[in-house]
Amino acid sequence: MFKGIIGLLAGICLAAPPALAQQAEPQLIRAAVLRVDDPGLPPISRLDIPPEDDGFAGARLAIEDNDTTGRFMGQDFEAEEVTATPETAAAEMDRILGEGVAFVVVLADDATTLALADQAGERAMIFNAAARGDNLRGADCRANTVHVAPSQAMMADALAQFLMWKNWPRWFLIEGSHPQDKALADAFRRSATKFGAKIVEERLYEDTGGARRTDSGHVQVQKQMPVFTQRAAEHDVIVAADEADIFAAYLPYQTWDARPVTGSAGLVPRSWHPAMEAWGGTQFQNRFEKLANRRMREADYQTWLALRMIGEAATRTQSADPAVLKEFMLSDQFDVAGFKGQKLTLRDWDHQLRQPILLTTGNLTASVSPQDQYLHQTSQLDTLGIDRPETECQF
Amino acid sequence: MKHILTLALCLATTPALANRVFVSNEKGNDVTVLDGETLEVIGTYPVGNRPRGITISPDGKELYVCASDDNLVRVFDPETMEELHTLPSGPDPELFVLHPSGNPLYIANEDDNLVTVVDTRTHQVLAEIPVGVEPEGMGISPDGKVVINTSETTNMAHFIDSESFEIFANVLVDSRPRFAQYSADGSKLYVTSEIGGTVSVIDPATQQIVKKISFDIPGVLPEAIQPVGARITSDGAKLFVALGPANRVAVIDGATDEVKDYLLVGQRVWQMAFTPDEKYLFTTNGNSNDVSVIDVAAEKVVKSVPVGQQPWGVVVAPN
What does the pLDDT look like over B278-301, one tens digit per residue? Predict the structure, then answer.
């Protein structure tokens, strides 16, 4: 420790490059991670049950990373971890704001995220690390919110590009009966139009509240799913829109026709996958697993990335002033590295973080979109999601 | 008797060793050895788990390999590819640099934010130096006095005193700095930034960035231009920078630091090494599982040679 301090002091005395001037007291940069847990149904597969520290473990890694850099910059980072229910979320947000925390990472559903953003207003910058709703980036966009989580439109476009590259343009779209399923199905419909796919058949899978988890697939599902998918128009793939996690996981191998399942099951677009090894991913996974004793989930990745954005802004501006950091993050000077092979930047029209999307199977990343063939005049990443000319966002 | 025999063996085979090329295959867990003259594969030898950084002692007697997943450095006889011993490296050694005298070895521990210094003779750890997040690139000044470490997530080049092991300066560069290379006269330090897409030219005396080299290749997306390995000729005239998934090596005028040309090589080109006479430059191409051979004078790719799975690092035996 003593040696470390000397090293740090030596750094000041000998080098003292103006760009890295240090201060006697470290600058403190505070954030909070507010996770709003919805007491809904457990996931279909017990392998998908979220761990207690879902998202928070990613925050811890980000703070470690930021602090390691902060040692050289005279900066210290903190992230308070807060869990809430939809009922207590507003009170918790009030408390956080009352403590003067200017950066809040929110892990919540679409409606709660929007409500919390409105509640924070000018007082805090919100980092949406979970909600994918396109409305949050469109008609319901908020100037105080940046979206680290990719949107439904980005997810759907990522899949659509791959399916078109595979020359599988005839889609059988199955959507669930929950509102969020319809939103996802709409995103798939939009992608089909955008990339020239044809939805040849659409069916609605009604959630009748059956004994979902007691049947692990071999009892009722094995009979129901073939019947449900019987006599569909000639199609290349099934695209499932099941955000509520009611039926899609049961589709693979149970369909009437021998067709691959994509979307909410089978080939699934994700922001992160624990088998990802490219672009330095292996060491990132290793560091996370050493810290958390489990694999990294999307919530962890998105929370890590949100807090890294704050850390990166603090390093580059050498400031702890939230206004300075916010202005820098929203400027065209800002980029952040996120183990996806290229710099990630913010779209100025809706504050969505541009990012490649992983197309994952059970144990692997099968592909990464954007696909090479889809070009764009500004950034290839803007072939995913809502581009500037089509945005409905007005800050 | 045994010693005499070994000596005789060495004497007899030294000329053949002179230009041997050693390529670490990250996924193959082995090293492919090429003849630097004929460019033929001599053999492939197991070297432990996830070999990445690879270097050789100035006398050509010891080949060092970072066995990342074994958490140690394995030392081989370059002649026989028999393992001689191992060196403690700290966890997840990725890349290292040898002091010009051959001792000690400075190792970047990617998972632990440390640089470990190991005595190559006593096999003892001399120091562990805390650096930024994901230390990777390691360079050393030609006089051996300053060690450079780049940290990929902190985005700094750390200047370390090679004797006191103290950091005395930190230079913020563009995203994901991968490699640090001094010019032979020590007047310039080049630091590549993979995600930033640039090479920072740093004046080692003042630790200030004096120039940033950027790249523009017609028909290649800017995001695909990711500078990784860098090597400069001993006369300082030509700097070569491997551009990762752009599948090109940039040729840069060492005097003006302006890009002269881009050479098409294999896929995802990372590390490079010259032959001792600087006639050839070898590049490791991780996605096409081959090495490209560049004629340095002609600035042309003359051959590609298939090696093992995901070639990562390369070193050529000294004369």
Answer: 999 999 999 999 999 999 999 999
Query: Among residues 243-272 of chain B, which lie with CB inside 8 Å of chain A?
Result: 245
- Residue of B131, B152, B156, B195 to mutate, testing the A interface (most A Cβ within 10 Å of its Cβ): B195
pLDDT class of A214 with cuts at 50, 70, 90: low
Quick one: closest CA in A to B131, which residue? Answer: A68
Give the minimum alpha-carbon distance from B91 to chain A in angstroms, rounded to a whole number: 11
What architecture (CATH level 2) is domain B21-180+254-316?
7 Propeller (2.130)
The least confident of A66-80, A119-133, A212-226, A362-376 is A212-226
Query: Could you give the ipTM of this predicted complex?
Result: 0.81
Pick the residue with more confidence: A26 or B296? B296
Residue B105 burial (10 A CB sphere; 0-12, 13-18, 19+): buried
Q: Which residues of A touch B (CB under 8 A)?
A: 3-4, 6-8, 10-11, 14-15, 17, 19-20, 64-65, 68-69, 71-72, 280, 283, 286-287, 290, 308, 315-316, 335-337, 341-343, 379-381
Check whether B8 has a pLDDT greater than 60: no
B203–chain A Cβ distance below 8 A for any pair: no
CATH 2.130.10.10 domain locations along chain B: 21-180+254-316
How far is the C-alpha of B89 from the C-alpha of B50, rounded, in Å? 14
C-alpha to C-alpha distances, B317 to A194, A271, B17, B233, nearest whole angstrom: 55, 44, 7, 16
| Residue A370 pLDDT level (bands cut at 50, 70, 90) | very high
| B264 to A54, B20, B246, B287: CA distances (angstroms) | 44, 24, 9, 14
- Domains annotated for chain A, with CATH where assigned, are 2-150+273-355 (3.40.50.2300), 153-269 (3.40.50.2300)
Interface touch B245/A17, C-beta < 8 Å: no
Q: Residue A210 has what pLDDT?
A: 64
Dihedral of alpha carbons B269, B57, B152, B110, sign: positive
